[in-house]
Amino acid sequence: MRIVIVVEGETDRRVLERVLDDLREQVRFEFLVANGRDAGRPIALRLLLSPQTAVALVYDADTTDQDRVRAEQQALESYFRRSVGQNQFLVQPFVPELEGIFFEVPDALQSALHSQIDSERRVAAIYAPKKVLTELLSSAKIHDVVELLENFTANDLKNLRQVQALQTIRKFVTNAGTS
Amino acid sequence: MTYLLESKDYDEPMSIEAIAKLRFRLEGRPASAMGIVFARSNFTIATETFAQFCSPLNVLLWSSDDLSFALEKSRMRTGLTEKFRYASEYGLPLLALRSA
Predict the structure, then answer these.
(1) What is the rounded CA–CA span in Å between residue A66 and residue A8?
(2) Does A75 touch chain B (CB under 8 A)?
(3) Which ranges of chain A have pLDDT less than 70?
(4) How far is CA B42 from CA A24, A82, B6, B38, in A?
(5) Which residues pair with A89 in a beta bridge?
(6) Do A42 and B44 touch (CB under 8 A)?
(7) Helix axis angle, A119-127 relative to A129-139, nearest 10°?
(8) Which of A21, A45, A55, A151 is 20 to 30 Å from A139 by CA-CA measure?
(9) The whole model's pTM is what?
(10) How far apart are CA A152 and CA A58, in angstroms?
């Protein structure tokens, strides 16, 4: 079984690569980087038309409106379902952006940044995690999220892997690899 | 094969309108004529679905990503052939060349 995770950009790939790397002992999977969500969709569909291929399309929802997130997710699922036969697929949004995963483990994030995150920024991060994280990284003189992840301890990474969206991707990869 | 070309230089993902207009122009041409829409952005799911379910499928879509890829790899001609084959085989108007 070929397992492909289609992501929106190189940073997303590098973050997910780090978060999923422990699964490589059990399953083989690869990443394909698209230039944005609308570019990733037809790439994922083309891959799904190949036999024995499972595809996860991972993207930023760019909204915190749960109705819009669900509607878009359902539209994408319908889009794949009407053309694809037996192959497994996953449509997984990050709400609103992938960078939001770091704010779901605030203790690990603060430890990696070597500084506290004030309450104002925590609230702002719910709606614009990428922007807030960029500011925090700049203040901490950390180049990017990949460098930030290098500051995560094994236990921090373990906690990060418990984030719901990441759990869903991990489960999909594991199930596809063993089916 | 004869193609009618339409190119759009929009920042936002392409809407249905351009496809509908091109299909209207194709109605006045021989049945073998096909349309191609080149976009500097990508296509919305609605636009792609519209192009897919129009009968006959006679418009091929080239997204920004396809153009970048084909120009970088000098694959405009083979890209067009691949897109036509994909449309013929699967009934889909948008082959992502990066995945071909």
Answers:
(1) 20
(2) yes
(3) none
(4) 33, 21, 14, 9
(5) A55
(6) no
(7) 140
(8) A21
(9) 0.92
(10) 23
